[in-house]
């Protein structure tokens, strides 16, 4: 089936449809990962976006049972150069086409993804649509330009009720703005007793769970679309050790009085170099973000910049000088991607230990 990808600037790519070609709209973004398309497809942070992969052959190792980052994919469309429908891998249980069909997600293959990526880098990310309609371009563009911009992605992907991953270690409350399973895996691997709570949880509800620490998860959309979460984090700051990842990092910054802004085309891929200020070390990181913390908004908030992106100098990590709280813009759970940064989960565990020791000393006094 012929499918069309149309961008708001009038660019049209004609290709072969796969998955379920229904008419969808979304922000068109690109990811430079060489592998990891299953994790990209199932990362809730892509909710509302049409993702184009710059690597030219996608689908060749199929889809397996283990690598999902959430129970169902939320992306609005998938764009590839060449779609492989005959996967070869011992773990593969279905094809990429079958997965997209299961969840009514459109795919389009045969697209000049290099041209598309250059365009997105030059103009910045754009609204786009995938459709099988043969209507004139002008008609489709009018529909695309009047399509509403999504602002409720977090509510769509967050859990509706509390669930647990029991463990014998520190009790961690994960505020689920669209949490990736990789984050839960990293916590349970370290024996944490995990409570995953909905995005609109209140500080009082969290106090009742008596956590040792709180993890602010990744998630889709603009951090300013969830003002209630910013207020809750403000109320929690200083009471418990906080660790923020991606959207959670941006929300920690906003709750501390710093500001965020949209980037031109964001960072998405598995090889983004990030420099840690304290050691001068460079880590290769997995990233997926459109927004960033504004460096010039940090002064006077009690925060410091701990990590910086080497490609463009943007903020990739912050830490609070007086309160137990730190966060990173990238993905230390490395799904997909390099595992260099998993030490940050150990840092969070140490912070929870220190907080416990601190409160024991305070009680003894
Ligand atoms: N992966 C994430 O948590 C992304 C955070 C935010 N939605 C952004 O695009 O910047």
Automatic annotation (TrEMBL):
<feature type="domain" description="Carbamoyl-phosphate synthase small subunit N-terminal">
    <location>
        <begin position="1"/>
        <end position="131"/>
    </location>
</feature>
<keyword id="KW-0067">ATP-binding</keyword>
<feature type="binding site">
    <location>
        <position position="291"/>
    </location>
    <ligand>
        <name>L-glutamine</name>
    </ligand>
</feature>
<feature type="binding site">
    <location>
        <position position="288"/>
    </location>
    <ligand>
        <name>L-glutamine</name>
    </ligand>
</feature>
<dbReference type="GO" id="GO:0004088">
    <property type="term" value="F:carbamoyl-phosphate synthase (glutamine-hydrolyzing) activity"/>
</dbReference>
<comment type="pathway">
    <text>Pyrimidine metabolism; UMP biosynthesis via de novo pathway; (S)-dihydroorotate from bicarbonate: step 1/3.</text>
</comment>
<comment type="subunit">
    <text>Composed of two chains; the small (or glutamine) chain promotes the hydrolysis of glutamine to ammonia, which is used by the large (or ammonia) chain to synthesize carbamoyl phosphate. Tetramer of heterodimers (alpha,beta)4.</text>
</comment>
<feature type="active site">
    <location>
        <position position="333"/>
    </location>
</feature>
<feature type="binding site">
    <location>
        <position position="250"/>
    </location>
    <ligand>
        <name>L-glutamine</name>
    </ligand>
</feature>
<dbReference type="Pfam" id="PF00988">
    <property type="entry name" value="CPSase_sm_chain"/>
</dbReference>
<comment type="pathway">
    <text>Amino-acid biosynthesis; L-arginine biosynthesis; carbamoyl phosphate from bicarbonate: step 1/1.</text>
</comment>
<keyword id="KW-0028">Amino-acid biosynthesis</keyword>
<dbReference type="InterPro" id="IPR006274">
    <property type="entry name" value="CarbamoylP_synth_ssu"/>
</dbReference>
<feature type="active site">
    <location>
        <position position="331"/>
    </location>
</feature>
<dbReference type="GO" id="GO:0006207">
    <property type="term" value="P:'de novo' pyrimidine nucleobase biosynthetic process"/>
</dbReference>
<dbReference type="InterPro" id="IPR036480">
    <property type="entry name" value="CarbP_synth_ssu_N_sf"/>
</dbReference>
<keyword id="KW-0055">Arginine biosynthesis</keyword>
<dbReference type="InterPro" id="IPR017926">
    <property type="entry name" value="GATASE"/>
</dbReference>
<dbReference type="InterPro" id="IPR035686">
    <property type="entry name" value="CPSase_GATase1"/>
</dbReference>
<dbReference type="GO" id="GO:0006541">
    <property type="term" value="P:glutamine metabolic process"/>
</dbReference>
<feature type="binding site">
    <location>
        <position position="221"/>
    </location>
    <ligand>
        <name>L-glutamine</name>
    </ligand>
</feature>
<feature type="binding site">
    <location>
        <position position="219"/>
    </location>
    <ligand>
        <name>L-glutamine</name>
    </ligand>
</feature>
<keyword id="KW-0436">Ligase</keyword>
<comment type="similarity">
    <text>Belongs to the CarA family.</text>
</comment>
<dbReference type="GO" id="GO:0044205">
    <property type="term" value="P:'de novo' UMP biosynthetic process"/>
</dbReference>
<keyword id="KW-0547">Nucleotide-binding</keyword>
<protein>
    <recommendedName>
        <fullName>Carbamoyl phosphate synthase small chain</fullName>
        <ecNumber>6.3.5.5</ecNumber>
    </recommendedName>
</protein>
<dbReference type="GO" id="GO:0005524">
    <property type="term" value="F:ATP binding"/>
</dbReference>
<feature type="active site" description="Nucleophile">
    <location>
        <position position="246"/>
    </location>
</feature>
<feature type="region of interest" description="CPSase">
    <location>
        <begin position="1"/>
        <end position="170"/>
    </location>
</feature>
<dbReference type="InterPro" id="IPR002474">
    <property type="entry name" value="CarbamoylP_synth_ssu_N"/>
</dbReference>
<dbReference type="GO" id="GO:0006526">
    <property type="term" value="P:L-arginine biosynthetic process"/>
</dbReference>
<dbReference type="InterPro" id="IPR029062">
    <property type="entry name" value="Class_I_gatase-like"/>
</dbReference>
<keyword id="KW-0315">Glutamine amidotransferase</keyword>
<feature type="binding site">
    <location>
        <position position="45"/>
    </location>
    <ligand>
        <name>L-glutamine</name>
    </ligand>
</feature>
<feature type="binding site">
    <location>
        <position position="247"/>
    </location>
    <ligand>
        <name>L-glutamine</name>
    </ligand>
</feature>
<dbReference type="InterPro" id="IPR050472">
    <property type="entry name" value="Anth_synth/Amidotransfase"/>
</dbReference>
<dbReference type="Pfam" id="PF00117">
    <property type="entry name" value="GATase"/>
</dbReference>
<keyword id="KW-0665">Pyrimidine biosynthesis</keyword>
<comment type="function">
    <text>Small subunit of the glutamine-dependent carbamoyl phosphate synthetase (CPSase). CPSase catalyzes the formation of carbamoyl phosphate from the ammonia moiety of glutamine, carbonate, and phosphate donated by ATP, constituting the first step of 2 biosynthetic pathways, one leading to arginine and/or urea and the other to pyrimidine nucleotides. The small subunit (glutamine amidotransferase) binds and cleaves glutamine to supply the large subunit with the substrate ammonia.</text>
</comment>
């Amino acid at each position: 089936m012929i499918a069309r990808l149309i961008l708001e600037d009038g660019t049209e790519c004609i290709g072969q449809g796969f998955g379920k070609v229904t008419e969808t709209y979304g922000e068109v973004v690109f990811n430079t990962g060489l592998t990891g398309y299953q994790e990209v497809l199932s990362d809730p942070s892509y909710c509302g976006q049409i993702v184009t992969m710059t690597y030219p052959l996608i689908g060749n190792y199929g889809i397996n049972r283990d690598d999902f980052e959430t129970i169902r994919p939320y992306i609005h469309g998938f764009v590839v150069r060449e779609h492989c429908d005959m996967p070869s891998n011992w773990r593969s249980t279905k094809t990429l086409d079958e997965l997209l069909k299961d969840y009514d997600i459109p795919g389009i293959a045969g697209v000049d993804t290099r041209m598309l990526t250059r365009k997105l880098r030059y103009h910045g990310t754009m609204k786009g649509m995938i459709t099988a309609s043969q209507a004139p371009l002008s008609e489709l563009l009018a529909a695309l330009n009047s399509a509403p911009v999504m602002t409720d992605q977090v509510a769509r992907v967050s859990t509706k009720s509390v669930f647990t991953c029991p463990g014998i270690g520190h009790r961690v409350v994960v505020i689920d703005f669209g949490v990736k399973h990789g984050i839960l895996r990293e916590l349970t691997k370290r024996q944490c007793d995990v409570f995953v709570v909905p995005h609109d949880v209140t500080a009082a509800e969290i106090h009742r769970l008596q956590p040792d620490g709180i993890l602010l998860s990744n998630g889709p959309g603009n951090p300013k679309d969830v003002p209630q979460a910013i207020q809750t984090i403000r109320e929690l700051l200083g009471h418990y050790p906080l660790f923020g990842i991606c959207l959670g990092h941006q929300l920690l910054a906003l709750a501390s009085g710093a500001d965020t802004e949209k980037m031109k085309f964001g960072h998405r891929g598995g090889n983004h170099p990030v420099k840690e200020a304290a050691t001068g070390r460079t880590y290769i990181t997995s990233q997926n973000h459109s927004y960033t913390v504004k460096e010039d908004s940090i002064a006077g908030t009690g925060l410091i910049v701990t990590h910086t992106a080497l490609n463009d100098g943007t903020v990739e990590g912050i830490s609070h000088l007086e309160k137990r709280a730190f966060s990173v813009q990238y993905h230390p759970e490395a799904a997909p991607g390099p595992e260099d940064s998993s030490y940050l989960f150990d840092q969070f565990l140490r912070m929870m230990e220190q907080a416990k020791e601190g409160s024991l000393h305070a009680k003894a006094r």
